[in-house]
Design goal:
By secondary structure, the chain is an alpha/beta fold. Helix content is 32%, strand content 24%. The chain contains 10 helices and 14 strands. A 6-stranded mixed sheet has the order 1-3-2-4-11-5, sandwiched between helices. The protein has a 5-stranded mixed sheet with strand order 8-7-9-6-10, with helices on both faces. Helix 1 crosses helix 8 and helix 9 runs parallel beside helix 10. The radius of gyration is 20 Å and the shape is globular. The N and C termini lie far apart (41 Å).
Length: 333
């Protein structure tokens, strides 16, 4: 039996047999939350309702770092969850602070989409073929550093706005290209705009990029109730572990979105591998650390322990190598 998925505008009162999922109102947020909602409905047969919540990050045009970091998108959603205006939240994991929110836990991490960044350029251009002085837009300090490291001749422009707004600036000729997440374009059926895919080995992305997090009130993830069953149905153990390892780097370095840090983890041949890079903001210097851990099993608990262990070792190596003098660390998480 498959449940239904509907949408509510603003706060929604609890109705028996219906799970209410809170989401930002942007097209991308609604698309990814709808994907999770359909998966839950299919797996559990429970009816699911989307509840849209407006955040300050959605309405402001300031740069993300000026707004105060990744938490700018999460605060209003978390307030709605704590106020019982919804039962679950779906976040882009890369936008979620690493510091725990009192009374809330991450209950599940669904299977990850493509974690890579892509270039969306006019005339099918790639990063290599962009002309000297080309204007490339991004609001990410990490992407800025990576672009400047690879192509110091480019004019990198700090931009905000949703995917359509950013792509529109290329179409209108204001920018020659923008850098976006492949996962976001895929969820919006806009991958046709991508003209160049950046390999993770050269362009590690934001910790958790491509993954979603489902957050619930502490305690709701336990037992056999509808919320716990929904979490169990969509949690992907390997994605959960690799995202935990990547986010352990952010937490250990006490870094937020203002710090140009990339991280990439994977499980292969019985090992959990993690590589992280800290960049000087102008792209002129970087530090990289890589470590691997061997989990006792591939169950959730052992993978989680291995993820935290490998994350701690990567952080220790980066700090010993001087990462704190390279990038702005100790910022809001």
């Amino acid at each position: 039996m498959t449940g239904t998925v509907t949408t509510a505008a603003g706060a929604s009162e609890r109705r028996d047999g219906v799970l209410r999922i809170g989401t930002r109102g942007s097209a991308l947020a609604v698309a990814q939350t709808t994907h999770v909602a359909k998966a839950i409905a299919r797996a559990t047969g429970v009816d699911v309702e989307l509840v849209t919540v407006t955040t300050h990050g959605d309405t402001s045009r300031e740069s993300l770092s000026d707004l105060g970091g990744t938490g700018v998108f999460a605060t209003a959603l978390r307030e709605a969850l704590l106020a019982d205006e919804c039962d679950l939240l779906v976040h882009s994991l890369k936008d979620l602070p690493t510091a725990a929110a009192p009374g809330l836990v991450i209950g599940a991490v669904p299977k990850r989409a493509d974690a890579r960044d892509v270039l969306c350029a006019r005339d099918g251009l790639t990063l290599e073929t962009l002309p000297e002085g080309a204007r490339v837009g991004t609001g990410s300090p990490r992407r800025i550093a990576q672009l400047k490291a690879q192509r110091p001749d480019l004019d990198v422009v700090d931009i905000r706005g949703n995917v359509d707004t950013r792509l529109g600036r290329v179409a209108e000729g204001d920018l020659d290209a923008v850098v976006l997440a492949a996962a976001g374009l895929s969820r919006l059926d806009r991958l046709d705009a991508a003209t160049d895919y950046f390999p993770l080995s050269q362009f590690p992305t934001a910790p958790g990029q491509g993954a979603l997090a489902i957050e619930v009130r502490a305690g709701d993830e336990k037992g056999r109730g509808p919320i716990a069953r929904a979490l169990q149905a969509v949690d992907h153990v390997t994605t959960h572990a690799t995202a935990t390892a990547e986010r352990a780097v952010l937490a250990g370095l006490e870094a937020g979105c203002a710090a140009p840090i990339g991280a990439s983890a994977l499980v292969e041949d019985g090992l959990l591998f993690l590589t992280a890079t800290v960049y000087r903001p102008d792209g002129t210097e970087r530090l990289t650390a890589s470590h691997a851990a061997t989990p006792d099993s591939f169950g959730a608990a052992d993978l989680d322990e291995a993820a935290r262990d490998v994350g701690a070792r990567v952080v220790s190596e980066l700090l010993e190598a001087g990462a704190a003098g390279l990038a702005p660390l100790g910022s809001t998480r």
